[in-house]
Structure to design on (464 residues):
């Protein structure tokens, strides 16, 4: 039986090798002087997925072989385009490696058509200090350079207690202030829906970068906000195992990574991009793992692979620019525009009904028109759906259903007609589902989010 398993594994490896391999290898300069380069490995049967790799080295050097070049066959055999970044060391300027990584992501996305890459399926991979660089782009990067997924091996994450002191000193300097330490302790910078899906690989006996304060801390932050994250901890292996076959769990690690990539399918090329803009009802407040059980996630399941649905909801936000927390002042709004959506669902108004916000109610029409105008100016000319807020079954947090019915919904209806937008009357459609609400009477449960997605999907599918 063991001989049969070995033979099967050999034949599977041969099958992968014959099915796909590196078609082209070349190197591009990221900086004019060649101090930073991108070595590109393009497969002969591209799947559309791509990975940009950041080797480690404590921000003093790069372990560019076993944490870089050695991985090319693994990815190319799976049809994944692979790019190894040689980034500059900080030498007192932490933005040098960060800007190189940002530039690399931009080069890959900008060249997507030429290299047969899906620009909405470009991930980043990082080892040790390169893991800190990769997680920095994942938590700090603007939408244009933020990866769609992250692969982190024994990453440096924190700059605080439990940090890898050499990486911290080289990246931040010898005496950074507290705010700078917090800003680049990336376990503190994880954001719901914005920080991309991540898989982390660690060895339990890592004596170089403490696993609990770094990789485990990042996983915990991701899980706490309900983001998609997986964590693999192997019993032994120390720090820096990379692609070394001497790592006791090398084959298991490759299989684990392969399975993770397979179970995170790529969006279809040309999928219709749907931006869900809204407040906590869109974000999925109170729903554990809202990245999988909030209404946008259920909407993705209902619409299928022909659509790419993104959640740009953020709790407590208002349509009113004079409200306590205006949506259009937030990063999510900038990201929604940068997403270049083809369909937009606007679900704002619930928090505007609070007395402290509705005193500016005369501006609601003007402010929503501003949002509509900004969306209309996008080169994709998206279809815009204006959704009336779902009923407030209780007046929790001063939210007032009477204001929603008599003040906000009539304005939304008029704006939909004026701008030739589609109207989603969710206030009426969701009224029978009071039993699907959380105790606050404002937010749907996971069951309510599923129902909300069904109602929205029906309206979208009428058009498409």
């Amino acid at each position: 039986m063991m001989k049969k398993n070995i033979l099967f594994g050999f034949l599977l490896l041969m099958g992968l090798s014959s099915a796909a391999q590196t078609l082209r290898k070349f190197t591009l300069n990221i900086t004019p002087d060649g101090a930073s380069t991108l070595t590109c490995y393009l497969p002969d049967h591209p799947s559309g997925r791509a990975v940009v790799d950041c080797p480690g080295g404590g921000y003093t050097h790069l372990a560019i072989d076993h944490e870089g070049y050695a991985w090319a066959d693994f990815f190319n055999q799976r049809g994944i385009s692979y790019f190894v970044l040689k980034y500059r060391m900080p030498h007192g300027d932490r933005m040098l490696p960060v800007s190189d990584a940002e530039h690399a992501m931009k080069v890959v996305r900008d060249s997507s058509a030429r290299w047969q890459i899906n620009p909405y399926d470009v991930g980043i991979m990082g080892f040790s200090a390169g893991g800190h660089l990769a997680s920095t782009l994942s938590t700090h990067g603007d939408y244009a350079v933020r990866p769609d997924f992250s692969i982190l091996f024994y990453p440096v994450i924190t700059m605080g207690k439990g940090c890898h002191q050499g990486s911290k000193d080289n990246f931040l300097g010898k005496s950074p202030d507290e705010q700078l330490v917090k800003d680049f302790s990336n376990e503190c910078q994880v954001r719901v829906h914005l920080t991309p899906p991540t898989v982390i690989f660690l060895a339990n006996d890592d004596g170089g970068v403490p696993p609990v304060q770094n990789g485990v801390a990042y996983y915990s932050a991701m899980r706490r906000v309900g983001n998609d994250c997986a964590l693999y901890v192997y019993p032994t292996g120390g720090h820096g195992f990379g692609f070394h076959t001497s790592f006791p769990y090398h084959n298991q690690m490759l299989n684990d990574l392969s399975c993770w990539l397979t179970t995170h399918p790529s969006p279809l090329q040309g999928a219709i991009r749907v931006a869900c803009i809204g407040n906590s009802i869109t974000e999925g407040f109170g729903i554990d793992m809202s990245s999988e059980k909030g209404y946008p996630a259920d909407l993705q399941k209902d619409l299928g692979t022909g659509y790419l649905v993104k959640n740009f909801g953020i709790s407590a936000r208002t349509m009113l620019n004079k409200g306590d927390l205006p949506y259009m002042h937030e990063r999510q709004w900038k990201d929604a525009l940068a997403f270049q959506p083809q369909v937009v669902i606007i679900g704002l108004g619930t928090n505007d009904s609070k007395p402290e916000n509705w005193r500016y109610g005369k501006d609601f029409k003007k402010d929503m028109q501003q949002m509509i105008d900004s969306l209309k100016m996008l080169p994709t000319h998206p279809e815009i759906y204006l959704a009336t807020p779902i009923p407030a079954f209780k007046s929790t947090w001063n939210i007032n259903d009477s204001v929603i019915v008599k003040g906000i919904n009539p304005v939304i209806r008029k704006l939909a007609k004026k701008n030739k937008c589609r109207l989603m009357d969710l206030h009426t459609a969701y009224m029978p589902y009071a039993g699907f609400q959380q105790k606050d009477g404002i937010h749907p449960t996971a069951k309510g989010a599923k129902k909300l997605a069904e109602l929205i999907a029906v309206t979208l599918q009428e058009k498409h």
User: Anything to note?
Assistant: Residues 353 and 403 are 6 Å apart (CA to CA). The chain is about 40% helix and 15% strand.
